[in-house]
Amino acid sequence: MSVCDNPTVATHTANRRTSFGRDTGLQARMLLTLFLLGLLYVVFIGVLFSVGASGVMIAIFALGLLAVQFFTSDKLAMASLGVKEVSPAEAPELHGIIERLCVQADLPKPRVCVMQSSMPNAFAMGRSQKKATVCATTGIMDLLSPAELEGVMAHELTHVINRDVMVMTLASFFASVAAFIVQWGFLFGGGFGGGNDDEEEGGLMYVILVSVVVYAISFLLLRTLSRYREFAADRGGAVLTGRPSALSSALLKISGTIERVPNEDLRKAEGMSAFFIIPARAKKSLLNIFADHPPLEQRLAALERLEAQLQGTA
C-alpha cells in the first residue's frame, strides 16, 4: 500500500514535508556554489580582458553559450540517450505513480519519458518545475516492485522540487566556458589581441593556465554539490512516500544489477552519470573520490536513520 492509500501516514508526511521535503542545507549549498563559481568567472573574464581579448567577443560568446546550455542542454542530453516521451496508455503504471506523487507534493506533472535500456536507472531534467522531465529506463521498470519504483520516482521529483537540476545546469556552464577556452586556445593558437607574436603566445598560455584552474575548481564544486543533492533527494523522496525502506531496497537492487550491465551500455550513458539515481560508470577506480554520487553505504545509512525518525523510534 502506498502512502496515498493511508490517510494517517499521508497527513503525517504532509506535516513533515515542510521540514524534510525542501532541503534548506541544499538550498544554501546551491547558493554558495553559484556565488563561488560566479566570483571565479568574474576573475576569469578579468584575465581575458588583461590579455587583450575583445569585450564584445567575450560577451557574445558567454551569453550565447549560456543560452544554449540553459535552454537546450536537457533536450540534447535526452536526444543523445534516445529518450522517448510516453503517454498514459503506453506506461500506465509509471504515469499513475508520478501523478499521485505530484498531487502529494503539489507539483505540476512533468513530462514522463522512457529510455530503452537494460540498465536500471532513472533521472530528472529541466530548467524549472513547469519544464521538468522525469525518465525511467525499461530496465528499472522491469526490475523494481511498484513501491520501489514509487520511491525512485519520488527521489527524482524531489530534484525537481529543490530545483537542483537547474542549478547544476547553470553551474556546469562555468566549467564549459573554461573547457572551451582551453580547447580553442590549443586548436587555434593566438588571437587574443594586439601585440607581437611573443606577447600573444604568452597571453594565450596565461589564459589556458587560468582556464585549467577555473575548470578544476568548477569540477570540484560541482562534484561536491552533486553528492549532497543526492542525499537531499533521497531524504525528500523517502518522506514524500513515507517509506524510506522502499527506496533503500530499490537502491540496492539497482546497484547490484548495474554491476552486471555490459560496459558498452554503461558507456553510452556515462556522460549523464551525475543525473542518474545510481551512477552509470563502466568501472570502479581511484577516481571515484571525485564521484558525483555519495557511496551507497552512506545513502542507505541515512535512509535507515530517517526510517527510525519517521517511526518515532530515533
Structure commentary:
The chain has one domain. α4 (92-105) packs across α6 (146-162), α6 (146-162) crosses α8 and α7 runs antiparallel to α8. With 314 residues, it is mainly alpha-helical. It has helices at 7-20, 24-50, 55-81, 92-105, 138-143, 146-162, 164-188, 197-241, 244-258, 263-269, 296-310; strands spanning 83-85, 111-115, 122-125, 133-137. The chain has a four-stranded mixed beta sheet with strand order 1-2-4-3. 68% of the residues lie in helices and 5% in strands.
What share of residues is helical?
A: 55-70%
The overall number of domains is 1
- Note the main sheet: 4 strands, mixed
How many angstroms does the end-to-end distance come to? 24 Å
The helix count comes to 11
Share of residues in strands: 5-15%
Determine the structural class based on helices, strands and strand pairing: mainly alpha
Write the layout of secondary structure elements.
Layout: H1 7-20, H2 24-50, H3 55-81, E1 83-85, H4 92-105, E2 111-115, E3 122-125, E4 133-137, H5 138-143, H6 146-162, H7 164-188, H8 197-241, H9 244-258, H10 263-269, H11 296-310
Parallel strand pairs: 2-4
Antiparallel strand pairs: 1-2, 3-4
Helix pairs in contact: 1-8, 2-7, 2-8, 3-7, 4-6, 6-8, 6-9, 7-8, 8-9, 8-11, 9-11
Keywords:
314 residues, mainly alpha, 68% helix, disordered N terminus
Briefly say what this structure is.
With 314 residues, the chain is mainly alpha-helical.
